[in-house]
Structures are given as structure tokens and as C-alpha cells.
Amino acid sequence: MPIILPTQAALSATFSPLIPNGRPKAQAQAPQTPRTSLRAREHLYPNWSVADDAKAKTNQLSDAAVKEFEKASSKVQQNTGKIELYSPQFYAACTFGGLLACGLTHTAVTPLDLVKCRRQVDSKMYKGNFEAWGKISRAEGLRGIFTGWSPTFFGYSVQGAFKYGGYEWFKKFYSDLAGPENAYKYKTWIYLAGSASAEFIADVGLCPFEAVKVRMQTTIPPFAKGTLDGLSKVTSAEGIGGLYKGLYPLWGRQIPYTMMKFASFETVVEMIYHRLPGQKSDYGKAAQTGVSFAGGYIAGILCAIVSHPADVMVSKLNANRQPGEAFGSAMGRIYKDIGFAGLWNGLPVRIVMIGTLTGLQWMIYDYFKIFMGFPTTGGAAPPEKQKA
Asked: Where is this region: Disordered (predicted)?
């Protein structure tokens, strides 16, 4: 007997009460986009669909944030007018960008800085960061983990303002002295000279706050309740000179640190753009600030290694230098106590801290420059040769 198969119309009529819209279930859920042999069936992978939805929502939020950023940036630029590069308004804006970049980031990593300073002064105090934070929080609460945040914020805001704004000014000043061709040929020397000059001035503003910060973080309980209380107590006991007794080692720490920070950042960013297709101007704001963060993080690791012995000595001098003791005598006494190995106490913590700090600082600073309508730092093209 021949076998009679039901037609598709008969099947559809039979099962239409059970299937939405009278279509087979697989057909009802089939995607509308053309399918190829390499295209997966998304309806078989619900987790994939959830991930795609989350990605789409993230992209929507990102697009909305970019639109709000551009709207605010456009409004600010309309109010300030077109700011010419290397004008007084340009340097003022860069100064404010540096204030934001350094003040906010250094304050955010106060818990790391607290443990680093205490371990530099007494390497046996804590075995590790988590043990330290646990002991501090149990003894002093959450507030104790952020001991020294106030002088950190004020000090590094001042330092960041003079460092970044000063660097832009000195870099242009030395480039003009050298001339376009020599400025490009000897650009690394320009970066080093500009950053060293800016940091020399910035440390004069940082030093009083650094003295208060270190004393607050290395005395248990802290010797002062806050920045003003700390400044008052130091000057009452030792005069204004007490706030600057760590200036020489601070220069010894910060000037090499900043020279490495700016010169290596400029070089790394230029190398990144050199290896990417196209020109720097071909990339959007997010990509350029991402390059700034990557270049800053690499530069921060190098900075931490170069400046760490001086950083240890700054902490020791501010905590243990006796009243009236000569700078050289104090340095010799401290080195005799801790030895060469002691100069490297807390280095792993500082690498993490400074790498993150430097990456975030450059990202914030360059994002602010974009906000104001300026080009980001680093990756500049060589000067065009004049035609004969």
C-alpha cells in the first residue's frame, strides 16, 4: 500500500492551535537576518543572547556618555572662546588639568600610600597589605585606612598644577630655543629638561604637605587631626624650616621620577602610534585616552624603580630626622640603620601604586585637554622640512 505523507498545509492546520501564529516553532524563532553556514544559531545559546544584550546596553550607555561629554565640552569652549595653543589661557587650562589629575589620583590611593610609608619606616610592622589594612581597620576603623588623605589631596593638587602646566611651558620654551629641527632631533632631551624644571618648582609647593602627610601616616595615633592642624604643630615646634627639612631628598625623589615619567610617556606613546595603522588624528577620543593610560602605566613602572630609594629616604627623614640634625648626618645615620636593601622596602607596593597612578593621571589630563579642545600629549609628527 502506498504511504501518503501529510502536506505542509495539513500539518500547519493540525498544529496551529499549539504554535504561535500558526507557524512551526523553529520557524517562528528563526532570525530575520540571512544565515550562512558559519553563522551560529543564537536561539540555541541563551547565555550568548544575554551577553549580546548586555554589550548592546553598554554601547548605548557609552554613546550617551560620549554625547553628554561632547555637549558639555562644546558649551565650555563656546564660553571660553577658541583658546590658542601656548597662550596664557592654554597654560592656565593645563595647570588646572594637572591639578585634577594628580590631586584626585593620589588621594584615591591613600590606603596604599599609608601602608607603603609605614613599611618603609618599620619593615617589620606588617607582613603584607591585606594584613596591614585589617589591623588598621580593626584599630581605627575605615577612616584609619585613609589617614593622611587631606594633606595628600592639597599637596599633590599643588604639585600636579605646577608639574603639568610647567611642563607644557618649559617644553615649548626649550623647543623654541633649540629650533624646530633640533627640537625634534633632540626631543628626548627637551622632555627631560622641561619636566625637571617644572618639578623643581612643583616640589617647593608639595614639600610642606608631604611633611605633614608622612608624619600623620607614620605615627600611631596620627600626630595631627588634619592638614591645618599638622602645619600648625610642625611650625610651632620647628618653625617654617620644619616643613622643608625633606626638600632635598624630595627633589632627589621627584625630579628623576618626573623626568622618567614624562620622557618615557612621550616616547612610549609615540611608539604606540608608530605601530598603529594610520595617524594619531585618525583615532577617536576613547582610543587616544586609552593610549595615554597604557603609556602612563608603563612610564609609572619605570618611575617607581628609579625613584624608590629616594622615596624611602624621604619617609625616613620626615619621620626620624632629629631637630637640628644636619641633612648629611641624618642621611648617613639612616643608611647605616637600614643598609642598601632597606632602600628598596615596599617597592612592589609602590610599583602597583605608581603604575596605576601615572596611567590614570595621563588619562585624566589628556581627557581634560580633549574637553578643552586641545590635542592629547605625545605622538607628535616630525616638523615639515622647508622647501628650498
From this structure: 16-37
Amino acid 371: pLDDT:
92
Report the Cα 95 to chain-centroid distance in Å. Answer: 16
Q: In terms of DSSP H, where are the helices of the chain?
A: 8-15, 25-29, 46-80, 88-108, 110-121, 129-140, 142-145, 149-178, 180-185, 187-218, 227-238, 247-275, 285-320, 327-342, 347-371
Q: Cα(314)–Cα(214) distance, rounded to whole angstroms? A: 9
At CA 178, angle to CA 175 and CA 179, rounded to 5?
Answer: 85
48 pLDDT more than 80: no
CATH number of 83-371: 1.50.40.10
Please answer whether residues 213 and 153 qualify as being in contact, where contact means their C-beta atoms are separated by less than 8 angstroms.
no
The predicted structure's pLDDT at residue 280: 86
Distance between CA atoms of 114 and 311, rounded to whole angstroms? 13
CA 173, chain centre distance (Å): 26
Q: What SS3 state is found at 24? A: coil
Q: Left (φ > 0), alpha (ψ -120 to 50) or beta: where does 326 sit?
A: beta
What integer pLDDT is reported at residue 386 of this predicted model? 47
Domain positions in the chain: 83-371
Residue the block writes with cell 621627584: 254
Between residues 46 and 201, which one has the greater pLDDT?
201
Query: Which tens digits make up the pLDDT trace of 175-222?
Result: 999 998 999 999 999 999 999 999 999 999 999 999 999 899 888 888
Tens digits of residue pLDDT in 76-107: 777 777 899 999 999 999 999 999 999 999 99
DSSP calls for 35-91? --TT---GGG-HHHHHHHHHHHHHHHHHHHHHHHHHHHHHHHHHHH--PPTTSHHHH
pLDDT at 47: 55
The one-letter amino acid code at 170 reads F
Radius of gyration of the chain (CA): 29
